[in-house]
Structure formats: structure tokens, C-alpha cells
Amino acid sequence: MMVISSFSCLSVVSFAATVDSGVETDEFGNVTTTYWKLDDAGTLTVYSDNEGLEWQKHKDSVKKVVFEEGVTTIANSSFSFFPVLEEVVFKGNLTKIEAGAFQECDSLKEVIFPGLDSVEEAAFYGCDNLMYVEIHGGWGAVGKNVFKNCAKLETVVIYNGTAVIGESMFEDCVSLKTANIPDSVYNIGRLAFENCVSLENIYISDGVQTIGAYAFYGCESAKTLYLGHDITEVGEYAFGGCSALESVEIECSMPIIVDGMFYGCSSLKSLENLPAGIKTIGNFAFANCTAFEKIDLPVTLEAIGTNAFDSTKITSIKIPANVTTIGSGAFTNCNSLSSIDVDVNNKAYTSVDGALYDITCDMLITCPAGKTGEYSIFDGAVEIGGGAFIGCTGLTVVEIPDSVTTIGDYAFSNCYKLANI
Question: Contact, 364 vs 380, CB < 8 A?
């Protein structure tokens, strides 16, 4: 007798087994609350705020963390140095990530944030393989160094509703190519993008009001810079060392080009449309902009800082009528500068044969370094200012009248061809 047996096809569903958990029990040992659990697939699910951090004994096994709706805060160093953590999922009501929470999680590649109220210092510092970040609003309070030294971070997407980009937030993220800044951001902290050497363009949206010192210093691949309408304050050296920068558009009416603002921007050739309200060009503002050839100084300008145009290629410059202060070395080492002209209505300075004097012609302040051959100091001048001829490498003869009684320090420094005085 032949027996034929038939079996229905059954689908087999496997469930990850719980490896460990944090629970609260009643007096009979029954579980009343589960705070967290870890399954054998390496997924840690966190159900509520928990500062005990008992799961840290499993740091070498946790590959994924899911924060359920009961979690509002991720405590200090909760997951720092978790070597195999690859994925983080935020749900529900999370409002705060505390200091160092995910510091140096070297397997983490992507993080998508909900709208948080605050993120504290070094929360994701040194996550070496983190490549993509999305920020969905919030971030009103941000600590230092949140993503600092995330060396492979390439893309940051920041959605409208985000308020602050914190101090050193992306400092030394050397692979970062794009980071949009929406209109809702009002503050970019100091050092926020310093040394982001792959950042291609810098676009500061119209909502931004303040930019901290050194915020984009050393972004050596950025070719264009746009400064939006609402900016009222820029910190020193904010865009210094942006050596590929070629184009600058300034829409705001800030009163000052701050110290070192464009220091070392060696590809920048001109800045011809400065806002009319600018009153001060700070110390070293354009120093070492070695390709810089032309700038139109606004009529509102009152002060030019120390070494403001040191080592640029400007060929001529006109000092507006309202300028009352020119710092020492403002035009030092400008080897292409052949003439400094002063508006006839200026009450502090004047120009004689293309050289800068005080209004009385008692002091020769600067002889342009581009002058060649022979130069005669104005007969009647009594003083040659400190560094007045510094870097005048083309001069061979300087005639000093008998009226001169004082010669300042380093007046003829680096005048290599000067044979007769």
C-alpha cells in the first residue's frame, strides 16, 4: 500500500531573541516596565530616559539603536566609543542629546535628526565614517564640536526651522563638500566650518545675523561667497585662508570689514562693490591676498587698519574724503602699487607725487612699493615715518631734503636696490 502524505507550505518567521534588558519588576517578580532591550541581531531598543546606561557592557555588540517615543533625552556619553554601531533611529519626542553621547562611533555612517531643542558638546565628535547628516529644525542651543573631526562627512542637509550652527560644529570635517544654510539660521558660531578644505561654495542666507570668528577659515576649495542681507556682525578672520575664493557678493550693510576677514584669500582679484555703509577696513583685512588688484573704497570709509592691504597686487588706490585713520603698514609690500591718491577734501591726509603724507606734509607716511628709480621727498617734510619705504625694491635713489629731522624705525627696510640716499 502506498501512502502519500501532503504538507502545506508554511512560512517561517524568525524573531530576534532578547539577549539582555533593563526592567522594573513588582514584588512578585513580574516585569512592569522595560527601559531597554538588546536582541541577538545587535539592535538595542531604548523605551525611556535612562541614565543608568547598563547597556554599555554590550558596546562591542550594538549595531543599531532605536529610540522609542518615551525617550526625551540621550544622556552624556551614552554610546560613546561603540565600535560597531552603524545606525541610529530617532522616534517621537526626543528633544536633547547630551555631551559626547555618540562620540567616536567609528562605524556610524548616517544620522537623520528630528527637530531637537539642544545638542551638547562633542555629541558626535570624531565619528570617522559618518558621511551624511540631516537636521530637521530646532537646534536652538548647540554646544561646541558637535561633529568636529568627522573626517568623511561629505553632505549636511539643514532644513528650515534650524536656528543655530554652533561653535566648531563642523570644524576639521575635511571631506565636507556641501552644507546648505536655510533662512531660519540666525547665528553661525566661531570656527563652525574651519578647515573644511573640500567645501565648494559658501552661501550665507538672508536670515543669518552673526558669523563668528574663523567660521570658514581655511576652506581652501570654496570659490564663491555670498553674504545675505541681514548680517550685522562678522568675527575676525571669518573667511581667511580661503585660497580658492574668486567671487564675493556682499548684500548686507555691515559697517566694518573686520580684522583678517579675507586674509590669505590668494585667488581673490577684486572687490569692487563694497556696501556704501562700510566705515572701517580692519587690520590685515586683505593681507596676503596675493592676486588682489582692485578695490573701490566707499565714500563712507573712515579707517584703514594696520597691514590692511599688505602683500596685495593693487596698482592704485584712492583714499576717500572721510578717512581719518590709516594704520601702519597698510600698503606694505604692495609691489605693484605705484600711486596712492587722496581725495582733495580729506582733512587728515594728502598725496604728493603718488606718496601718502599727513595733511600738513610734515610726515611722509608711505611711499608706494611699486615706485622705481629715483624718488624725492617733499621739500618741507620733517619726518619719514616708520616703514615708509619698506619693500620699495625698485628704488635706486631717495633724495631727502634738509628739512627732515626724524627717520622712523625700519623706514628703508628691504629696499634692496637702494644705492644712494
Answer: no
Let me know: does 102 contact 124? Beta carbons within 8 Å: yes
Q: Which three cell numbers stand for residue 382?
A: 620733517
pLDDT digits (tens, 9 = 90+) for 175-186: 999 888 999 999
Q: Which of 19-23, 203-207, 301-305 has the lowest mean pLDDT?
A: 19-23
In angstroms, rounded to a whole number, what is the distance separating the alpha carbons of residues 121 and 131? 20
Measured in degrees and rounded to the nearest 5, phi and psi for residue 193 equal -125, 20
pLDDT tens column, 223-244: 999 999 999 999 999 999 999 9
Contacts of 90 (CB under 8 A, 6+ apart): 67, 112, 113, 114
Q: Is residue 201 a contact partner of residue 179, using CB atoms and an 8 Å limit?
A: no
Q: How far apart are CA 301 and CA 328, in angstroms?
A: 17
Q: Whole-prediction pTM value? A: 0.89
CB atoms within 10 A of CB 24: 9
- CA geometry: angle 110, 115, 117, nearest 5 deg: 115
d(CA 163, CA 160): 8
- Single-letter residue type at 137: G
Burial class (CB in 10 A: 0-12, 13-18, 19+), 377: buried
